[in-house]
Design goal:
- The complex is a heterodimer of chains A (about 100) and B (about 120).
- With about 100 residues, chain A is mainly α.
- Chain A is elongated and about 45 Å long.
- The two termini of chain A are about 20 Å apart.
- Helix content of chain A is about 85%, strand content about 0%.
- In chain A, helix 1 runs antiparallel to helix 2, helix 1 runs antiparallel to helix 4 and helix 2 packs antiparallel against helix 3.
- By secondary structure, chain B is of the alpha/beta class.
- In chain B, about 40% of the residues lie in helices and about 20% in strands.
- A five-stranded parallel beta sheet of chain B has the order 2-1-3-4-5, with helices on both faces.
- The longest helix of chain B is centred in the first third of the chain and has 11 residues.
- Chain B starts with a strand and ends in a 5-residue tail after the last helix.
- The chains are: A mainly alpha (about 100), B alpha/beta (about 120).
- At the A-B interface, helix 1, helix 2 and helix 3 of A face helix 1 of B.
Chain lengths: ~100, ~120
């Protein structure tokens, strides 16, 4: 493995660890309808997930971020958040 | 000849990947900033040849940072390329009409970022 690939693998592991903790935070934020926290978490995942090989997580996170930005109702935010947290659980368990 | 690249993004993991990717080009010297607020004085002091600027950042977003760079005489002429997930034609044209040199889609490919960036450099 080259130095670049080795470092990318390390960063991917760090992303997976963070994704697991973000999943719990997303559930809590959706329960509290804490939109600022939902947006912060979704923004972080949407920017980084695809770079580490998880494009679908990135797309779900982007959808949630855009829903917060467009002031979607609480039900829609919870639906999109559930899609994202389910995806996070599936993708991070698969690896 | 060294080419100085300043990469500005609020996501620490992405900053790290971007710096590593850009440094695959041996002529690139890379520094990063975590926000527009951090980038402005760094750009003034370090005088990068190109700035890669994330669009969506808290406190000071990319377009606001870009406007401030243009207001500072010592950074006004530095070419800026926006980094954004929003790459629909209308949005890309909007960024270019602000005076940006170009737009790179996010997520970017870590293996080809350096060559993409080189395409925005003169000659």
């Amino acid at each position: 493995m080259t130095g670049f690939e080795d470092k990318m693998a390390q960063l991917r592991e760090r992303f997976l660890a963070r994704a697991e903790s973000d999943r719990a935070k997303l559930v809590a934020a959706a329960t509290l309808d804490d939109r600022a926290e939902l947006r912060r978490l979704a923004h972080g995942l949407s920017g980084s997930a695809a770079v580490f090989g998880f494009p679908d997580i990135g797309l779900d996170a982007q959808a949630l971020e855009e829903a917060v930005d467009s002031d979607a109702d609480e039900g829609e935010l919870r639906r999109l958040c559930a899609l994202l947290t389910d995806r996070l659980a599936r993708e991070t368990q698969r690896t | 000849m060294t080419t100085r690249i300043l990469y500005v993004d609020d996501e620490p993991d992405i900053r790290e990947v971007a710096a590593m990717s850009l440094e695959l080009d041996p002529e690139f010297e890379v520094r990063t900033a975590a926000s527009g607020v951090e980038a402005l004085p760094l750009a003034s002091e370090w005088k990068p040849d190109l700035i890669l600027l994330d669009v969506m950042m808290p406190v000071m977003d990319g377009p606001t940072t870009f406007a401030r760079l243009r207001e500072q005489p010592d950074t006004a002429a530095i070419p800026v390329v926006f980094i954004t997930a929003r790459t629909q034609a209308q949005e890309v044209e909007g960024f270019k009409s602000l005076g940006a040199k170009g737009v790179i889609g996010k997520p970017f490919d870590p293996m080809s970022l350096a060559s993409t960036v080189r395409g925005y450099l003169p000659g």
